[in-house]
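Supplementary Methods, section 5.1.

A reviewer requested that the exact input to the structure prediction be made available. We therefore reproduce it here, unchanged from the version used in the analyses.
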Amino acid sequence: MHAQLRCGLQQLGADRHPHSGRSLLDHLVGTAELLSNWGCAAHVCAAGMYHSIYGTNGFSTACQGRDQREVIVSLIGERAERLVYLFALSERPVAFFEAVGSGYLSSRFDGSQHPVALDELRELIAIECANLIEQHGQPELVEVLLALPDAQRSALLDGNVIDGIERSNGGSNA
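The structure derived from this sequence is encoded cell-by-cell as follows.
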C-alpha cells in the first residue's frame, strides 16, 4: 500500500515541488513513516503521507485542487482524505486546539465551520507533530504538548503517539 500511495504522489507531481530542502514527496513519505513508527492507524498514516497535497497555511503549493477531492479519496480513502482536507483548511496548529472546545474547525479560506470529532482532532494533532518533527520545525508545539499534565496530554494524543514523539524528540519530556 505504501508503494501505491507514493506512486499516487508522484503522479500528482509531489516529487517536483521543493519542500524543506528536498522534495515534497520526501517530506510526505517521511511524515507517514513517523506516524507508522508511532503505531498510528493506516488511515492516519495515509493522511500524513498526503497532508499537504491541497497546500496548507504554511505551504501554499497545492498538487491537487480542493475542488477535486474525489481524486484523493480514490487514492487514500474517505476517512484519510477528510483529515487531509481539514488539515489544509485549518490555521494550524492553533485551530486544532480551538476546535477541542468548539467541535468546529474554521476554514482559513472562507470562514465556514466544519464539524470535527475529538478523535479526528487527536489524529490531526498527531499528523501536525509528525509534520513538524520530520522537517525539524517549530519544536515549541511539541515541547508544549509534552509539557502538559498527563491527563491533558492524554486527552489530545494517544499514548503510542506520545511515546513516539518522545523518541523522535530525543527522549526529552519537559
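The first strand starts at residue 18 and ends at 19. These observations are discussed further in the main text.
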